[in-house]
Amino acid sequence: MANQEFRQGDVLLVRIAEVPEGASRKDNILALGEATGHHHMLEGGEVLIKDGTQYVVARQQTRVVHQEHSQIQIPKGNYKVVLQHEYSPQENRRVMD
């Protein structure tokens, strides 16, 4: 399996061989915009979570949509969701959308 990554704004999807056992299903929101109320959402497929990490299971090609970014197409496969962080002297925090 080739190393594949897909980015939409502050959300990165990294292709993985399989989702960890015991991950549970959640809604299809990958990231909420704290400042704007916009969100990154998977259309089709499933979003799972385990130990605070989100995973995407796309059984067919699907897409990620956002109100301010162009949609991206995601090929069939399993993905780990990585949310971008930024450094400040006070803390390491998630980028505010």
Structure summary, number of beta strands: 12
Mean pLDDT: 86
How many separate structural domains?
Answer: 1
Query: What's the Cα radius of gyration?
Result: 13 Å
- Taking the alpha carbons of the first and last residues, their distance comes to 32 Å
* Succession of helices and strands: EEEEEEEEEEEE
Number of helices: 0
Beta-strand level of the residues, as a percent range?
Answer: over 45%
Q: What summary fits the major beta sheet?
A: 6 strands, antiparallel
Helix content bin:
under 10%
Model description:
- By secondary structure, the protein is mainly beta.
- The protein has one domain (about 5-95).
- About 0% of the residues lie in helices and about 55% in strands.
- It has no helices and twelve strands.
- The strands form three sheets. A six-stranded antiparallel β-sheet has the order 1-2-10-7-6-3, with no helix packed on it. It has a four-stranded antiparallel β-sheet with strand order 4-5-8-9, with no helix packed on it. Strands 11-12 form a two-stranded antiparallel sheet.
- It starts with a strand and ends with a strand.
